[in-house]
């Protein structure tokens, strides 16, 4: 049962250091229980161990340390929403001066969606319709602590 749990942790991509620490802890618990742990108990013990190993300070650090943050990826993966969340934290928790720049002029209502987030956060939004627009507007936003840049999604299978 323990071997199965460890294989599952490795299959899920857990760092080997954490896998080994979990294995040591599980073996200890196994012997403390007179070798009578059920699979459900093993899962619960692992869950508790993994939660304890999380460093809560990691989540308290400054979220964005770069001036320009651009998200790229496939259509529909949540780039715009993620940018809005990052910007919200930067504005509300870190008191940063932020702005949005969108190059997503392809998707219907993409600009409106980002404009809604900009209105909620009371931050400016610029729209780039061309590479020249993008360069000019980026230069005009240099006074901001952080500029969040949204892009149009692309299908990775499209050769263009």
Structure description:
The chain is an alpha/beta fold and 160 residues long. It folds into two domains: 2-54; 59-150, P-loop containing nucleotide triphosphate hydrolases (Rossmann fold, 3-Layer(aba) Sandwich). The chain contains six helices and four strands. The protein has helices spanning 2-11, 16-32, 39-53, 79-92, 110-121, 131-140, and strands spanning 68-70, 98-102, 125-127, 146-150. Helix 5 (110-121) links the parallel strand 2 and strand 3. Helix 1 (2-11) runs antiparallel to helix 2 (16-32), helix 2 (16-32) packs across helix 3 and helix 4 (79-92) runs parallel beside helix 5 (110-121). The longest helix is centred in the N-terminal third of the chain and has 17 residues, at 16-32. It starts with a helix and ends in a 10-residue tail after the last strand. The mean pLDDT is 84.
